[in-house]
């Protein structure tokens, strides 16, 4: 039983550091996402727009998926930071392309049309899963 507590005592600070770094990257990426979108999710959500809440929740989960993949497969904190930043930038670019392709999306989100948010969530989660899978490196036997 002593070895379990010793392992916890040695590993817990690393867990906090790595998870904290990933959490900070997620907060920064969500902030950038909110600034990039043509509609203002937080104001819409505060005003009772459920569709904006769905779209923002989908974006947060979509950003977290590749970041979680990085967290699970990184071999060092620097590795986590590097691949985490790369994955978040790529995911933000994918989101921006999605937003641009669905031209009437900002108006539909503002008009509280759930169908628009569902399509948006689907495309964001799909791109997140593809990106997360692409982070796997068989040469390093990551994962």
UniProtKB/TrEMBL annotation:
InterPro entries recorded: DUF350
Record's bilayer topology term: Multi-pass membrane protein
Transmembrane region(s): 15-36, 48-68, 80-102, 114-136
Primary location recorded for the protein, binned into one broad class: membrane
Keyword list, A-Z: Cell membrane, Membrane, Transmembrane, Transmembrane helix
Subcellular location: Cell membrane
Recorded family membership: Belongs to the UPF0719 family.
Descriptive protein name: DUF350 domain-containing protein
Species of the source: Henriciella pelagia
